[in-house]
Amino acid sequence: MNQQNKIMKNRLLLLFIVFILFSAFRADKPVLTIFTIGDSTMANKNLYGGNPERGWCMVLPGFFSEDIRVDNHAANGRSSKSFISEGRWAKVISQVKKGDYVFIQFGHNDEKADSARHTDPGTTFDDNLRRFVNETRVKGGIPVLFNSIVRRNFVQPEDASIATDARRAPGEQELPKEVNVLYDTHGAYLDSPRNVAKEMGVAFIDMNKITHDLVQGLGPAESKKLFMFVEPEKVPAFPKGREDNTHLNVYGARTIAGLTVDAIAKEIPELAKYVRHYDYVVAQDGTGDFFTVQEAINAVPDFRKNVRTTILVRKGTYKEKIIIPESKINISLIGEDGVVLTNDDFANKKVVLISDEAHHLNADTKKMSKDEEVSYKSWEYTVHRIFCANRDNVLLEFTATCDIKNPLIKAEYENKIILSKRICLCKCCRRSEINCSIFQ
Questions:
Q1: Mapped to the 3 state alphabet, what secondary structure does 200-254 carry?
Q2: Catalytic choice (40, 80, 148, 432)
Q3: What is the distance of C-alpha 46 from the center of its chain?
Q4: Torsion angle of C-alpha atoms 396, 397, 401, 403, degrees rounded to 10
Q5: Which pLDDT tens digit goes with each residue over 370-382?
Q6: Other residues' Cβ atoms within 10 Å of the Cβ of residue 245
Q7: What does the pLDDT look like over 281-316, one tens digit per residue?
Q8: Helices 124-138 & 191-200, crossing angle to 10 degrees?
Q9: Which DSSP symbol is given to 184?
Q10: What is the pLDDT of residues 192-220, one digit of tens each?
Q11: Among the listed residues 131, 133, 83, the one whose alpha carbon sits nearest the alpha carbon of residue 107
Q12: 66 given a catalytic annotation
């Protein structure tokens, strides 16, 4: 009996996701695209060397349903002027179709003095914003204007290095003394998007206020957790470390994007129905909190009662062994359409199907004996329609590529049999059961 319990325990730990795995099925229908244009505070980042920097629009897809596609064209160092002159805007507007959205956020680099980027609020900056709005509308798109996020500036008089978005290693220079008041660095550049939005009847999102309230509320010490403050020898991409009061890390980007989508939902009701919030997002392309499902599970607070932790797993194939400790309770894994969690631990292992299991085979089961031997080539948890009818129980559907030994079936399907099962994992007894009564 002990050996049997051990086998069952290992099977649960190594193979089954012990908590709820949801996947939202959606009918094929046109997907709305949100095009985003702006500077480095929005942009996608290179992940080389474990770079933790993220633009807030890089992580934006994790806050919308799969009915929305975020196409992020924001680029480091660009102003409204250079975004146009480099042909970036022409590329974006050529793709906009009726009903698409264009999120527009500039200012940080329009403030810079060099002629390739500089614009003036009230004149040239406003003119560029009007151009984005007008040309989007001509294509049938819907423009949305944003002003800039704050720089983390708790220094007065203003620290010139902050205003230039300097990135420096710790200890390169003596830092000025910080106070408890967050000071503005953008000036009139914050007003241009607001004024143009009012003039042209465009939705406006005051991201400066959103981020000011957040950073000011956290104060000088805690607010560093949002920005690119990296200790030396902690991240291969920055062996000397990094001190950066402008650019966001993973936590900062996710936090600010979450606050922003709430403001978007309030200002643009048509998008509100697509907004989603999850405790953690797993994504192989760096658009989430973590790259692996196991990292997200490990981050869940121990024995978190009275609330369910939600983890979105974005599209991709995740080759990992998932182990959920007993201290991680009330977890929901929500998989995007097409997510696969795969583990090859059961390659070449043999099990015997009992009759209850055999009738779930997507093959000619009439040819299969009651105790048919199956050799698994690999094991994949494929995210299908997963749901739960009870807080303390889990329904998991999965597929496994296997080799049926029955010569009649083997000859017909030649190692391509797909085993589909519905497994109910009951918390009370930790047993896997077919046709669990709560689902009947």
A1: HCCEEECHHHHHHHHHHHHHHHHHHHHEEEECCCCCCCCCCCEEEEEEEEHHHHH
A2: 40
A3: 16
A4: 90
A5: 344 444 343 344 3
A6: 25
A7: 999 999 999 999 899 999 999 988 888 888 999 998
A8: 40
A9: P
A10: 999 999 999 999 999 999 999 999 999 99
A11: 83
A12: no
Mean pLDDT of the chain: 77
Q: Is 79 a catalytic residue?
A: no
Give CA–CA dist 278/26, Å, rounded: 19
Between CA 264 and CA 269 the distance in angstroms is 8
Q: Which residues of 40-129 form beta strands (DSSP E)? A: 68-72, 101-105
Q: Which member of 73, 108, 186, 247 is catalytic?
A: 247
The DSSP letter of residue 170 is T
Is residue 243 annotated as part of the catalytic site, yes or no? yes
The DSSP symbol for 275 reads B
Rounded Cα gap, residues 354 and 279, in angstroms: 39
User: What is the tens place of the pLDDT at every residue in 345-362?
Assistant: 544 444 333 333 333 333
Token code pair at residue 261: 């989508």
Amino acid symbol at 344 = D
Which one of the listed residues 23, 108, 148, 243 is annotated catalytic? 243
% of the chain exceeding 70 in pLDDT: 68
**Low-confidence winner among 60-74, 256-270, 355-369 (lowest mean pLDDT):** 355-369
Q: From 285, 265, 252, select the one nearest 203 (Cα to Cα).
A: 265
Angle at which helix 250-267 crosses helix 207-222, to 10 degrees, equals: 150
